[in-house]
Amino acid sequence: MERHRAQPGTRPSTPQEAWACLEAGNVRFMAGERAHPHQDVQLRHRLANKQTPFAVFFGCADSRVAAEIIFDQGLGDLFVVRTAGHVIDSSVIGSIEFAVGVLDVHLIVVLGHDSCGAVKAAVDAVETGDMPTGYIRDIVERVTPSVLTARKRGETSTYEIEAEHVRHTAWLLASRSTVVADKLAQGTLGIVGATYRLREGQANVVEALGMQPPKRSVRDSRV
Question: How far apart are CA 121 and CA 101, in angstroms?
């Protein structure tokens, strides 16, 4: 799939091609066979005046979930936005709209993971009624609706709750951003929601908006 990014300025032309490229990188990462693409000095110089990323990553700020590493991508490939628990605010939406509207990126990936501290804090708050102080409370409040929705369906494991939070985040982006909604309606943008398993290194698709479900994606039967 690296043929999509063989030359500077080239990139996948559809959301499906973009996800296939990322999926191939995740397979390499899991196998310990990373290609470390697009990290040479010459490319760094060529990128100095212009970027053409082919995907937006909105993920958790957790130190163990670096998109460029786990999807084996390099400089100029991904436009990355990260917050604890991948919670959305106006700056997040503005950053994603810049990538989609100005840089003409065709794919948004919402990436959650197991053992997420923000999800655990929200679960604890729901169970005990005790809210954390400071701005951590703001994060917990934004994750709590996903906890409640998952539990209403009888889903109680942290992985199931995280999968629901990924789906919720993807739908929030699609409904709150006019730029994203318009591109989805035009068929030029897709959103993939995925959960990442820290130990296995595997990304599993739990949601796909504006595109056919990725054909080669690994779906976790427990989600």
Answer: 34
Residue 217 counted as domain residue: no
Please tell me the predicted confidence (pLDDT) of residue 5: 47
Tell me what pLDDT residue 36 has. 79
Q: For position 65, which CATH number holds?
A: 3.40.1050.10
Note the pLDDT of residue 11.
Answer: 74
Angle at 175 between CA 67 and CA 205, to 5 degrees: 40
Q: CA-CA distance, 18 to 54, in Å (whole number)?
A: 7
**206-215, pLDDT tens digit by residue?**
999 987 654 4
Q: Number of structural domains, the chain?
A: 1
**Whole-angstrom Cα distance, residue 101 to residue 97?**
5
pLDDT tens figures, 53-99: 999 999 999 999 999 999 999 888 999 999 999 999 999 999 999 99
Residue 13 lies in domain? 2-209
Given a cut of 60, whether residue 159 has pLDDT beyond it is yes
Decide if 223 is inside a domain. Answer: no
Residues ≥6 apart with Cβ < 8 Å to 91: none
Instruction: Return the axis-axis angle of helices 90-97 and 178-186, rounded to nearest 10°.
Output: 40
Q: Is residue 216 part of a domain?
A: no
Residue 95 belongs to some domain of the structure: yes
What's the rounded Cα separation, in Å, for the pair 163 and 196? 10
